[in-house]
Structures are given as structure tokens and as C-alpha cells.
Amino acid sequence: MITGPEPSGIAGSGHVITARGERCFFCGEATEDPAVMWSGATGEIFLHPPCFPELMIRGSRDLLELEHRSGGRLAWRPDERNQGAAPS
Known about the structure:
single chain
């Protein structure tokens, strides 16, 4: 989600989400709007727009390393209908 002075894109919520007073999950510096905000099971993380692709690149690299070490593909979830076959 993109933070800022306008209501969020959540249908009908009217909530305004701001990054002011938060810290960037990636670099640790203070954030301002606009920023990227993600919600998870334990809270929210905020990212500066330039930090977002840096985090994604590192996350993708880590995923490839996990796949290499495990010998399996982790970027998809097996589906009971295709008994674990990779998506085409």
C-alpha cells in the first residue's frame, strides 16, 4: 500500500495511512509520505520508495539460494489437483 494524504485503496475504508513518524524497515531512516507500507501478522513495515526494490532484490536472491540449497522450487505452492507439479 502507498502511504499519503489520500484515503487508502481499501474499498470504502476512508482510512489515511501515513509513514510520518515511522522508520524504514530496510535502511532504518525516518520515513515520510509517500512510502510503501505492508501489514503482516506482527505489525506493519514501512519502506522508502528507493528502498523497496533493494529489499525485493535481496528477497529474490535469498529465495533462489533457498531453492538451490533445498533442491526444490519454493516460489509456488503445490496444488492437490496437479500433485505438486510446477505451474506451466
